[in-house]
Amino acid sequence: MPAQARTESPSPTPPGLTRFNAEPAEDIERTLLTCLHSLRWARRLTDHRPYPDLDSLLAAADEAAYDLTPGDLSEALAAEALPALPDGVYSAAHTALGAAHAAYEARFGHVFVICLDGTPPTEVLNTILAAIRSRLANDPEEERVVAAEELRRLARERLGNALRGAGLQHVPAPPRSATSHN
């Protein structure tokens, strides 16, 4: 009996990717800025459309994140928020986390960023506190490298989630008076 060749069908294009490839550039840039607040990163991904599949887009997002300049990194870090704690975390933990965040921000001049992808909710607090304590020992340049890697991971996770979900979510354009001209 002859061996039958197996052909694997390519994974279907997520509906969000089809939309990502087709939407106007300004809409896509606004959406990308919710994943990583670097205009250069967002424009680079927008300008290189269309992407044949999600893996290609995520690889391009990684490459663009690796190429962030110190100014791009500062721009992205300035727009990040502190990681959210799961519901039910007791108030003493909030106090400890607030103190750790304050020490980190005083040392490095920007908010602490960490990608918690795959971290069980019961381990989020301990993971954040352990990471802050560990990273406080870094020198500022070493920490910028670590923070940049965490931002890249966050952007990849946010972008993948947006495109794998029900579709790409768009962010409305800001009112003209709120638009920055830097």
TrEMBL record:
- Give one Pfam family, short name only: OHCU_decarbox
Question: What keywords would UniProt list here?
Answer: Decarboxylase, Lyase, Purine metabolism
What name appears for this protein in its UniProt entry? 2-oxo-4-hydroxy-4-carboxy-5-ureidoimidazoline decarboxylase
What Enzyme Commission number does this protein have?
4.1.1.97
Source taxonomy: Bacteria, Bacillati, Actinomycetota, Actinomycetes, Kitasatosporales
Taking every annotated instance into account, which residue ranges of this chain make up the domain Oxo-4-hydroxy-4-carboxy-5-ureidoimidazoline decarboxylase? Answer: 21-79, 92-159
Which region ranges are annotated with the description Disordered?
1-21
**A GO biological process held by the record:** purine nucleobase metabolic process
Please give the start and end residues of each transmembrane region. Answer: none
Per the record, the pathway is:
Purine metabolism; urate degradation; (S)-allantoin from urate: step 3/3
Give a GO molecular function annotation for the protein: 2-oxo-4-hydroxy-4-carboxy-5-ureidoimidazoline decarboxylase activity
Compositional bias (Polar residues): 1-10
Q: Which organism is it from?
A: Streptomyces lacrimifluminis
- Which reaction does this enzyme catalyse, per its entry? 5-hydroxy-2-oxo-4-ureido-2,5-dihydro-1H-imidazole-5-carboxylate + H(+) = (S)-allantoin + CO2
